[in-house]
Specification:
Helices cover 13% and strands 11% of the residues. The chain is largely without helices or strands. It is elongated.
Length: 293
């Protein structure tokens, strides 16, 4: 009888131990938050009060403060998950931003930032980074793989070239590079296996990578207002594509097998050079899509 109780106790302890293992957080103890989770935390909107509660601050919102510089002390917010510096007049980000080791959501849009600090490489838990509507001429120096980065907004800047290393952001779901000054794309732009939405509109791009079909999960592709004269044949293998915007280019024909894009719902072809015959061919290929010429 005692031996049976002992055996049962051992199994219970083993099971309890396994449950403990399953329940343990990641080794570094960092919790990954969904954006909806942030609603549970009240944002701090004044730096003085935030510094007084520095260990408890999860959200720091200094947007619309007419700031010319970021207040000192940013590096003290090691538990902060969400930082909003948008809609100020900030010219540069301080190096100490890299000390915000738990930062996952960062918005510095609508400022006058022209260069990014290398310390951003330390923010390995970033899930979303919005640097849109600034004065960035280049996006370089950020060589970190950013393994958790899902949303990157760099639109409405003056970026002329992308580094090869941007292809290391393997978790990207959405990438917005619209309204820049890009003339070409690195081959690594096709290295995002999870990418769903890609916006390259309003640039000066003359050609797309031949292996664009590697973006196999893409559902929305905006190439409007560029300098494209032809599309690579491989684009027809983007079989999950639902929205394709080619408005304002120099296209005369679409690839022969464009009919493979069976999930297309919206196709914008306005402002190109299609003749009547090509328009008719396209219409017969996409009977159930909304097409704009």
């Amino acid at each position: 009888m005692h031996s049976k109780i002992w055996i049962i106790s051992v199994f219970l302890l083993m099971g309890f131990g396994l449950n403990l293992l399953k329940a343990q957080p990641p080794e570094d103890g960092v919790k990954i938050y969904a954006k909806s989770d942030l609603e549970a935390f009240e944002p701090y909107t004044r730096m003085k009060s935030a510094l007084a509660d520095v260990k408890f601050v999860k959200r720091l919102d200094l947007s619309l403060h007419e700031l010319l510089t970021v207040p000192d002390g940013l590096g003290n917010f090691r538990n902060c998950v969400d930082l909003n510096l948008s809609e100020n007049k900030i010219q540069a980000l301080p190096a100490e931003i890299g000390e915000m080791m738990n930062l996952q959501y960062f918005n510095a849009s609508r400022n006058i930032i022209s260069k990014l600090p290398l310390s951003l490489n330390k923010l390995t838990y970033l899930q979303e980074m919005d640097l849109s509507n600034n004065l960035l001429v280049e996006y370089s120096g950020l060589l970190n793989n950013f393994p958790n980065l899902k949303y990157l907004y760099l639109d409405h800047n003056f970026i002329q070239e992308l580094p090869w290393e941007i292809g290391n952001y393997k978790s990207l779901i959405e990438l917005n590079l619209g309204y820049n000054q890009l003339r070409s794309l690195p081959e690594s732009i096709t290295s995002f296996p999870e990418l769903r939405k890609l916006d390259l509109s309003h640039n000066f791009i003359g050609r797309l990578p031949n292996d664009i079909d590697k973006l196999s999960n893409l559902t929305e592709l905006d190439l409007s207002n560029n300098m494209l004269t032809a599309l690579p044949d491989s684009i027809v293998y983007l079989e999950n594509l639902k929205v394709l915007n080619l408005r304002g280019n120099k296209l005369k024909v679409l690839p022969k097998d464009i009919v493979r894009l069976t999930h297309i719902q919206e196709l914008d072809l306005r402002g190109n050079k299609f003749n009547g015959r090509e328009k008719d061919r396209i219409r017969t290929k996409f009977l159930y899509a909304t097409i704009k010429f």
